[in-house]
Amino acid sequence: MTSQLYGIAASDGIAIAKTYRLENPSLEFEKIMIAEPGPEIERLQSALAKSTAELELIKEQAEKQIGPKEAAIFGAHLMVLSDPELIGPITEKITTDHVNAEFALHEVAEMFIGIFSSMDNDYMKERAADVKDVRNRVLGHLLGVKVPNPGLISEKVIILAEDLTPSDTVQFNPEFIQGFVTEIGGRTSHSAILARTLEIPAVVGVKHLMENLEDGTVLIVDGIEGKIIANPTKEELQHYGKRKEEFAHQKTQLASLKDAATLSADGVEVELGANIGSPKDLNSALENGAEAIGLFRTEFLYMGRDSFPTEEQQFEIYSEVLERMGSKPTVVRTLDIGGDKELSYLDLPKELNPFLGLRAIRLCLEMPDMFRTQLRALIRSSVHGNLKIMFPMIATLEEFRQAKQLFVEEQEKLAAEGIPFNEEIEVGIMVEIPSTAVMADLFAKEVDFFSIGTNDLIQYTLAADRMNENVAHLYQPFNPAILRMVKMVIDAAHKEGKWAGMCGEMAGEELAVPILLGLGLDEFSMSASSILKTRSLISTLSKAELVTHTEQILSLATAEEVKQYVAGLVKH
Question: Is 208 known to be catalytic?
């Protein structure tokens, strides 16, 4: 029976495919006493063989998509699976204790996890996570339940999930993932941003999604209107099939602007950059005519692994991005972990409110050795392109000065070692905390640039969690308080002869672009899929005319009034 569900439109486009439910199954089991160990040992060997075949395929896919170094974690899992020191005791426990394979596997694995976790050696501690992952995979096969493997999807599907973690999404292959729908999240949640990076349709914040839709259901995802249709009729399939073709045609037309400069109707040039999470996102950025990388989210280098990336591993990745961008600016954000982004190998404290806790620059200053490794890799890579570095989550001038001091110290060490680097690297900050926006005039005297991170600036200013669909109505990019802060930051930068950019999702919103152009924003950085639409829009706008409207826009009382006013301007 046809049914419709509604959520938040997170990424433009139309997708039509069968659903793939991405959920963690129950791995509960009971201890069962057995008479004959033979059949249980056969069950165990069968589950081990299936797990090995699965992991070999996942490793092969991961090597193609995220590179051999990042895929090494799956090689570690394969070693655990074939380790006689682990498998031998499981078989022995089945034979001597006359217990079922599930119980024997769990007991032996728990023993090893306990031993590894208690060791002082970091490498051995990481093996505990490997054993846990392998145990769950084998247990899934023993229990006959499906353990999700997004990296193994080899047919066109639409992902359904309660939520998507970055470690889930690093395995996504856009050739097969046509779109996704989640129960949790807003337009600026990480899953939504990823959808725009992959250029696949997505709807988020769909309540009761998982209880209403089964695996294999034919689904239409309308990422433009924020609607999904399950078991569509023939007429609906035809209608949305046509809309999908029209959307593809529009993209083809916009492609003619790929190599054009970004000029307003009255000849004012601004820079359009792309937000990326890894080198593989560069193809989309360049195909969509990015004039810069306005935000390289380096936390994705740290995810999907079992230990911190080394200086050399980071150096190679940063160098690759800089070389491919050539003389075009590449703004790299230092590690932004915490909040909703976790690392399995980093034991962060459990916090009542992690978004206001130990995250981003706060964590880096708490772990200076880790931070210095990243800074050193970045500084070394600067000889390969036009690198700019920015620190996230800066709340006070003291934090910026501390981070800048560590940067300068690493420059001095490299100079003493005779290692070449660009001595003129610009160092700036993300403006995403209200205290920083209010103090922008003082920050502007010390930083080289500002990049306004509206995703967090909006949630912190309006006290509305951007991941929470229940307060989505309070997450208002057009709220006059936000616009006034943006103006303060841009004006402060220009007064000191510095540039101001924006790397939050607001930079690519159709109604926000005229406001930001009028306020004097120098650089707009967004999901690659938004660049050509934004370039086309800017070509129709007169900056001089928009400037005459900024005072009126900033005097309006509500976000809705702002949107109505700007919509009227764009129509003219």
Answer: no
User: Which of 509, 514, 516 lies closest to 486, judged by CA?
Assistant: 516
- How many folded domains does the chain comprise? 3
297: pLDDT strictly greater than 90: yes
Q: Whole-model pTM?
A: 0.70
Averaged pLDDT for residues 454-464: 92
How many C-beta atoms surround the C-beta of residue 465 within 10 A? 18
What tokens were used for 385?
């392109």
473 catalytic residue (yes or no): no
| 77, 106, 190, 384: the active-site residue | 190
Q: What is the CATH number of the domain that holds 213?
A: 3.50.30.10
CA 308 → CA 20, 277, 373, 488, 489, distances in Å?
A: 31, 17, 10, 38, 34
Residue range 330-369, pLDDT digits in tens: 999 999 987 666 777 777 777 888 788 888 999 999 999 9
Degrees, nearest 5: CA angle 375-407-167: 30
Last residue of a domain, one of 124, 143, 162: 143
Q: How far apart are CA 377 and CA 373, in angstroms?
A: 6
Residue 350 lies in a domain: yes
Residues 389 and 533 reside in one and the same domain: yes
User: In terms of domains, do 243 and 277 share one?
Assistant: no
Beta-bridged to residue 488, according to DSSP, are none
